[in-house]
Amino acid sequence: MKYAVIYKSKRNNKKLARAIGEAIGVIPQELESFDTNQEVDVLFFGASIYGGGVAPDVLTYIEKFTSDKIKKLVLFSASGFGTNQYQTLIDKVGSQGIAVEEEVYTCLGRAFFFKNHNHPNAEEVNGVASFARKYVTK
After folding, report:
1. CA distance 11 to 26
2. Domain coverage including residue 14
3. Rounded (10°) CA dihedral 118, 132, 95, 61
4. Cys bridge to 108: 83, 95, 116, 138, which one at CB 3.0-4.6 A?
5. 32-43 pLDDT, tens per residue?
6. How far, CA to CA in Å, does 109 sit from each of 44, 61, 130?
């Protein structure tokens, strides 16, 4: 099976993407550098969250995702709220025929200058690595 890890982030999701990459043996890529023409069985995706939702540029970019290239999407996120704020993204990708894993890894992420300053922390980084390993077959 082929796996890929992509992210859109200033800092939080990049940290999680690196942990996933190390855990499953792939090099994470920024969203804009991901080749949407490659076939991927499982795509781990951390999208930036701003103001309680997915950033608009991310929603535009994922229109390039197709079900003949991406078989399954597994989402992860570190945000100021530490909760799943991906429903718009899930709905959009689902309407494109791409399977989306129901479980989403979420944790706190640094927000603004003062909120959640030490997140994602070591426990959360280890947690996302364990989460990712569940979706990798050997």
Report:
1. 19
2. 3-134
3. 60
4. 116
5. 999 999 999 999
6. 18, 23, 18
